[in-house]
Design a protein that fits this description.
There is one protein chain. The chain is α+β, with helices and mostly antiparallel strands and 151 residues long. 16% of the residues lie in helices and 34% in strands. The chain has one domain: Nuclear Transport Factor 2, Chain: A. Strands 1, 2, 3, 4 and 5 form a 5-stranded antiparallel sheet that branches. The longest helix has 14 residues. The radius of gyration is 16 Å and the shape is elongated. It comes from Halomonas cupida.
Length: 151
């Protein structure tokens, strides 16, 4: 799905209808370096004062599970996701020379605040991936690493 049809409206101020929609927009904001959006979409009780820029190149988001529980009267959302990334990119955008691949897996919590879903916190776990040249590229293209991001 194109950015303009999915996350851009949220980055521009539209309200996320679900925690999953907010998580997808936060992932794209991380990938695009839109730190103001990330801070604004964070719940006020857990929001950091600032975010540090890094050289992480986010390549794919996979939603494992998501939902909303309204049983106690206050809606609480969750999103379990896996985000694949590459650090230490060299050369052209999207190409990895001597790079390190990884996966961030997290079960995130969301609460409503002033009519908007907000990210509260999560239980992150980072795993290093070691794809071989002939393995599928972690970006999800379906091509071998050597023919895709490892070129």
């Amino acid at each position: 799905m194109a950015l303009a049809d999915c996350c851009q409206p949220l980055h521009d101020g539209a309200v996320a209808g679900t925690p999953e929609a907010l998580m997808r927009s936060r992932y794209s904001a991380f990938a695009l370096g839109r730190h103001n959006y990330l801070l604004n979409s964070w719940h006020s009780t857990t929001r950091p004062a600032e975010l540090n820029a890094d050289d992480t190149h986010w390549v794919r988001l996979e939603i494992v599970d998501h939902g909303v529980d309204e049983s106690d009267g206050e809606p609480r959302g969750h999103v379990h996701f896996r985000a694949f990334f590459c650090e230490g990119l060299e050369g052209r955008e999207g190409r990895a020379g001597r790079s390190r691949w990884g996966m961030l897996e997290e079960r995130s919590r969301f609460l409503r605040e002033q009519g908007h879903w907000r990210y509260v916190d999560g239980q992150p776990r980072v795993s290093r991936l070691k794809p071989g040249r002939n393995d599928a590229c972690p970006c999800g293209s379906g091509r071998k690493l050597k023919q895709c991001c490892g070129n």
